[in-house]
């Protein structure tokens, strides 16, 4: 199972996705036991086999791409623990009956808590929801290649299972549910009903998008996408395709909000800075069009009302342009704008992934925020490139009364790093300076400590790495002479 989980993680990396295997979401702190007993379930298995045979004839008329779902599946795994139709059969039934389909995607023979999933979804099936419930039981060996796996839903594959996908009768994406919601029947029922309540308004916009030509159709597609959570909108290939087709010149600017993820945004920003993409780029280095990039980002942000996620994403994009311009101009005002932009991302939602990441970068660029070390090691993540950063190293446990102390930076990597302005502080009060002039680069300094120091004792100095984040690292050593 561990090998298969590793495989899933690699799928996420290779596919460029943002999905990851999160033990907390799957409840690994108390995994449910999956029964391996077969003797008592022969009759049930035989009924399921009969049902599977009937389903097979129904699926035979389905597109060939679904054949991959069953290809290579061991015979003993043909019966799923869940009493729901298979993926394509459920979707065909939903289309015929004009009902939404709700597909649970999991793996009954490898996924932790699959026993809990089966129990909760069996309970969910009794809730009389106005949907057709189906399943993708991705058992080991059932999906032979990435291409087949990608086509199991109209919205691509997922690498963080379990996932539930709710689709309109015409298979337009309504919602994607993951994490604890999928593991609890009551939570799933509540989430599905909440989505279905919004479905009429959403589907009206979808129909308008399909049946209206030009930018008006594109705007309708964008309005429908705006009703969905950010991650769902990024998965909604059908509406994104409509938007792109009906607004090929990007007059609405909706493409920049709903047809690209974080990295896609940077590609578009860089295309403006560089005057083109890839081989078509006309500007490099100092010649890049930074002011055009700033105007472009602000124009996109003003074009439509933004969700929290989109506002965070494009504010981070604005910070990126300021950063790139600072690398050329070295103007303090630009560094301040970088910090302000990242602080804005944090302010919008500090608990989101954007918020957490932006806090790290805001502190990185903020001159007033020092790096505080309670360990003797420093590495690439502690480095600033293009400007100095104050480091404060806790050396309290090395103090042994008055005397001469030597503080040394011992690099283990080859990067060119400057360090200067060494001072010793006790409980926030200046005690003495190093024996090296404050403006001189040094890796070793001596402090003459005049008295016994109690409380928190720190060595403070300024550092900069000139060879990139991955080139500098080492150990900080304090000892009494």
Could you walk me through the main structural features you see in this protein, from its secondary elements to its overall organization?
This protein has three domains: 166 residues, Glutaredoxin, CATH 3.40.30.10; 106 residues; 110 residues, Sandwich (Jelly Rolls), CATH 2.60.120. It has a five-stranded mixed beta sheet, with no helix packed on it. Strands 2-1-3-4 form a four-stranded mixed beta sheet. The chain has a four-stranded antiparallel beta sheet with strand order 6-13-8-11, with no helix packed on it. β3 and β4 form a beta hairpin. α6 packs across α8, α9 runs antiparallel to α11 and α13 packs parallel to α15. It is an alpha+beta fold and 481 residues long. Helices cover 43% and strands 17% of the residues. The N terminus is likely disordered. It is elongated and about 85 Å long.
Describe what is shown at a glance.
The chain has 481 residues and is of the alpha+beta class.
């Amino acid at each position: 199972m561990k090998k298969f989980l590793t495989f899933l993680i690699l799928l996420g990396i290779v596919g460029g996705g943002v999905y990851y295997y999160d033990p907390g979401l799957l409840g690994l702190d108390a995994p449910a036991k999956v029964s391996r007993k077969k003797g008592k379930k022969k009759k049930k298995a035989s009924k399921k086999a009969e049902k599977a045979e009937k389903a097979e004839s129904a699926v035979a008329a389905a597109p060939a791409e679904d054949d991959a779902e069953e290809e290579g599946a061991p015979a003993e795994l043909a019966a799923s623990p869940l009493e729901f139709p298979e993926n394509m059969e459920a979707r065909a039934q939903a289309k015929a009956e004009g009902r939404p389909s709700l597909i649970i995607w999991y793996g009954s023979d490898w996924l932790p808590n699959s026993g809990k999933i089966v129990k909760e979804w069996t309970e969910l099936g009794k809730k009389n929801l106005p949907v057709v419930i189906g399943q993708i039981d991705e058992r080991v060996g059932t999906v032979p290649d990435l291409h087949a796996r990608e086509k199991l839903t109209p919205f691509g594959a997922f690498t963080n299972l379990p996932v539930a996908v709710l689709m309109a009768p015409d298979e337009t994406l309504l919602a994607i549910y993951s994490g604890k919601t999928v593991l609890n029947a009551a939570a799933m029922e509540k989430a599905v009903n909440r989505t279905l309540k919004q479905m009429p308004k959403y589907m009206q916009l979808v129909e308008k998008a399909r049946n209206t030509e030009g930018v008006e159709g594109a705007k309708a597609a964008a309005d429908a996408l705006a009703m969905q959570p950010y991650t769902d909108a990024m998965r909604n290939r059908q509406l994104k395709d409509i938007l792109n087709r009906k607004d090929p010149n990007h007059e609405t600017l909706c493409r920049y909000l709903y047809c690209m993820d974080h990295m896609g945004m940077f590609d578009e920003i860089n295309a403006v800075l560089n005057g083109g993409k890839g081989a078509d780029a006309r500007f490099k280095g100092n010649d890049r069009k930074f002011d055009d990039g700033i105007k472009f980002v602000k124009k996109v942000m003003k074009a439509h009302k933004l969700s929290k996620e989109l506002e965070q994403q494009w504010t981070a994009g604005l910070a990126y342009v300021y950063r790139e311009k600072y690398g050329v101009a070295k103007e303090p005002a630009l560094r301040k704008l970088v910090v302000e932009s990242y602080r804005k991302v944090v302010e919008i939602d500090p608990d989101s992934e954007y918020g957490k990441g932006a806090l790290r970068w805001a502190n990185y660029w903020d001159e007033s925020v020092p790096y505080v070390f309670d360990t003797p090691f420093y590495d690439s993540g502690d480095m600033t490139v293009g400007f100095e950063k104050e480091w404060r190293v806790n050396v309290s446990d090395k103090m042994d009364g008055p005397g001469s102390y030597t503080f040394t930076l011992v690099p283990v990597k080859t990067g060119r790093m400057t360090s200067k302005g060494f001072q010793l502080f006790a409980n926030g009060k200046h005690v003495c300076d190093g024996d090296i002039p404050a403006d001189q680069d040094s890796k070793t300094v001596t402090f003459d400590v005049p008295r016994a120091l109690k409380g928190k004792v720190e060595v403070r100095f300024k550092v900069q790495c000139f060879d990139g984040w991955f080139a500098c690292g080492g150990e900080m050593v304090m000892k009494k002479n």
